[in-house]
Fold this sequence. Notes:
Elements: H1 2-20, H2 24-40, H3 42-49, H4 55-66, H5 72-83, H6 90-104, E1 107-114, H7 120-134, E2 138-145, E3 152-157, E4 160-165, H8 166-179
Parallel strand pairs: 1-2
Antiparallel strand pairs: 1-3, 3-4
Helix pairs in contact: 1-6, 2-6, 4-5
Amino acid sequence: MKGVRAAKRYAKALMQLADQNNSLDTTVVDVKMIHKLIEESADLKMLLSSPLIKSDKKHSILSAIFDGKVNALTLKFIQLLVDHNRESHLDVMMQEFISLYNEKNNIAKVSLATATALNNNSRELILKTIKEKYKFSEIQLEETVDSDLLGGLIMRIGDKQLDASIQGQLRKIENELVQA
Length: 180
């Protein structure tokens, strides 16, 4: 829990610095790339979380990985984390930064589960409806096919969920019958 709070503070600080330096858009690209790399590389995860590897060694390895691939601000931020022994929380910080960026720019991350794959017309109609209803400037859609739904969809936007699936409707009817 303590690490998550620190991660939020560091992410907020990086957001403010990037905003002040007019490098917010390049920084978010860097952050997404770093987050993806951490998710995909067990070696990088081990490097970041290992207390046995000395800070100067971590500095040199991380500089070799990211120098020339991320902007100077992002690289300095990573080095600062190593200096303060916070590199083990880098992935959480990257997630927090992306969340802050999305919130600042009115970008919504929407998870959509359907019984069958959506065609383009249905997808566009759903996106248009969400944008109009919630006034989002952009929507990042994550689609999954869940054959257990039987039909309809389940949509998650942040911490809200809309269950418009046949399975959900059947569950609702069952609960009403049990309570009657």
